[in-house]
Inverse folding.
């Protein structure tokens, strides 16, 4: 027993060391060993709401030696950290970079629905802020944004045209084109500005053409053949004057009173969200701004170190989850929580006959089928139905789906108990299902303490090192008090699922099938398998046919993308659940911890704007 206690403490120390290495390593990479200053900024936008951004200031930018600047903008359901790769590589090359949370995203305040697009969702305010800095060359300001961040940049260009002296010199669209999220066409607004488009051949949202009924006529792979692409490359002039065919990666130039402007369409083969996590696409941005603004510290396109930062922040993810589990186990040794420890070894229940195995695998298959089909249903019918009380689209959609899956799992367990379990020796209370109120209360206190301390490490990383823990779309980040209040509204959805899920995995399905490790992996796979199939079907079909399998509505386009974070969460939740159950014979502890983590994770990584999802959905 002493050896086991020591083991948990050792793993706790390992977790803290991994988190510290992550913080220090990521900080040194992003600051270029302290040659780049990073400042957190909050200011009132022209629309009258708070904007949040990070300002990256390279050492070469001074009042005497003004530097070009770039505003980087994240996409819908994202936050500014999703632009890390672009921000870091541009700052390394001497650009001042302001990376922005759009209104309602990250830590920026939301605007009401009827004013959602005031000030280009915050981009115009960011451009004005950058232009006011004494070390920025106001004649060399660029904007680049991913997806809706790029379409918001188009709105900012339209506003910029109203100035006596426009501020935006160039725009790079990451997985976006000349439209905005209301369907407005800004192709005629670019004027003499240089503009580039990163148009993937397998983009989930953009670069297809459609008939009046919404049927796809040309796929993203055929984008260069379209009249729209050719008109763009022809500086919005009649395509009959365009000397084709259009070529990807070629710079098309035009002189305007001695000023040379360019148009270019880059053609990677990644999917829509991968444009933010691609050395190829980041390389396009490096080259584009070198051509249009001129890099003070020019470096080869291939010289990219952002993947090293990702390695450090991913290491922090490992440390975070290792801390969460080992800290919970260590706290069981505290006098107040010791009553929660299992009094004897928690053993897998024997499966006595073939009927028992049939029930195990049969209910597993049924639950996976329900998970997959109910997710698709929720994406088609719940998506974008936000309210004043539930102002986050992703949190509501995933929350309702989780609730449905939890209720369905409860029904399956009841059916199993009365149809087979009760007559074959299944004792619910012996598995820990019946928990005294005293233990239940201490379970809740322990779970809250684990989450608070785990996120305390994230806030420590942000305050002292200006880093967090993430890899691609999976990010654990800091948040404001407003997100806590929002998370409390969604918490019941996730509590129902993760508590019932833990009961199912441990009280009903911890048995000898598959052995000790195999049974845990089977449960983890069952949790996430339907989601894996949906992603595989969507993108297998997309790459084979250039068309999406699930349809062209916005909800159907985004449904596999959201699963990129859901899959590891569901897989990991089963493992965390089993580890803690074996220490406590208590299915509720892991259920509470998983539910609170997933709620905070979801509510702090999506956008908060009342009914805004409905407006976006109408353009697809």
């Amino acid at each position: 027993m002493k050896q086991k206690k020591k083991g948990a403490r050792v793993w706790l120390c390992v977790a803290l060391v991994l988190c510290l290495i992550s913080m220090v390593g990521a900080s040194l990479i992003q600051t270029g060993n302290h040659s780049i200053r990073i400042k957190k900024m909050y200011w009132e936008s022209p629309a009258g709401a708070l904007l949040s951004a990070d300002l990256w200031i390279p050492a070469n930018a001074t009042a005497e030696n003004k530097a070009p600047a770039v505003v980087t903008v994240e996409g819908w359901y994202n936050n500014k950290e999703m632009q890390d790769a672009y921000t870091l590589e541009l700052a390394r090359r001497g650009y001042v970079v302001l990376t922005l949370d759009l209104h309602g995203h990250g830590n920026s305040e939301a605007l009401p629905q009827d004013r959602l697009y005031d000030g280009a969702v915050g981009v115009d305010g960011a451009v004005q802020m950058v232009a006011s800095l004494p070390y920025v060359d106001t004649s060399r300001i660029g904007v680049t944004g991913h997806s809706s961040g790029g379409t918001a940049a188009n709105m900012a260009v339209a506003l910029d045209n109203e100035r006596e002296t426009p501020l935006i010199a160039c725009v790079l669209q990451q997985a976006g084109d000349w439209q905005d999220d209301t369907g407005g066409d800004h192709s005629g607004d670019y004027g003499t500005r240089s503009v580039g488009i990163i148009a993937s051949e397998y983009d989930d949202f953009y670069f297809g053409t459609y008939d009046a009924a919404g049927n796809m006529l040309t796929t993203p792979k055929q984008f260069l053949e379209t009249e729209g692409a050719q008109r763009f490359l022809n500086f919005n002039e009649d395509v009959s004057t365009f000397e084709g065919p259009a070529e990807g990666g070629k710079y098309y130039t035009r002189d305007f009173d001695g000023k040379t402007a360019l148009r270019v369409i880059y053609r990677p083969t990644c999917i829509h969200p991968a444009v933010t996590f691609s050395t190829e696409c980041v390389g396009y941005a490096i080259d584009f701004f070198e051509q249009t603004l001129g890099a003070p510290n020019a470096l080869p396109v291939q010289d990219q170190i952002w993947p090293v930062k990702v390695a450090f922040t991913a290491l922090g993810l490992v440390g975070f989850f290792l801390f969460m589990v080992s800290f919970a186990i260590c706290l069981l040794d505290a006098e107040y929580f010791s009553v929660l420890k299992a009094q004897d070894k928690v053993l897998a229940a024997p499966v006595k006959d073939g009927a028992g195995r049939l029930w195990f695998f049969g209910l597993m298959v049924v639950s996976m089928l329900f998970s997959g089909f109910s997710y698709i249903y929720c994406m088609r019918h719940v998506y974008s139905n936000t309210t004043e009380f539930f102002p986050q689209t992703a949190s509501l959609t995933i929350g309702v789906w989780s609730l449905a899956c939890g209720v369905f799992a409860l029904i399956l367990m009841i059916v199993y108990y009365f149809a087979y379990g009760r007559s074959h020796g299944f004792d619910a209370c012996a598995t820990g299902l019946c928990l005294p109120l005293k233990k239940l209360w201490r379970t809740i206190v322990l779970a809250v303490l684990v989450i608070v301390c785990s996120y305390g490490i994230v806030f420590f990383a942000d305050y002292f090192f200006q880093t967090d823990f993430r890899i691609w779309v999976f990010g654990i980040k800091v948040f404001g008090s407003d997100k806590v209040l929002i998370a409390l509204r969604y918490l019941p959805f996730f509590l129902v699922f993760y508590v019932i899920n833990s009961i199912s995995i441990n009280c009903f399905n911890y048995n000898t099938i598959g052995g000790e490790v195999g049974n845990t992996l089977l449960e983890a796979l069952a949790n996430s398998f339907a989601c894996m199939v949906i992603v595989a079907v969507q993108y297998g079909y997309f790459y084979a046919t250039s068309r999406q399998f699930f349809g062209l509505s916005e909800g159907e386009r985004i449904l596999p993308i959201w699963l990129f974070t859901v899959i590891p969460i569901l897989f990991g939740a089963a493992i965390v659940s089993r580890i803690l159950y074996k220490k406590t014979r208590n299915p509720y502890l892991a259920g509470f911890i998983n539910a609170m983590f997933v709620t905070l994770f979801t509510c702090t990584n999506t956008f908060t704007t009342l009914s805004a999802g409905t407006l976006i959905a109408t353009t697809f």
Notes: The mean pLDDT is 94. The longest helix spans residues 515-545.
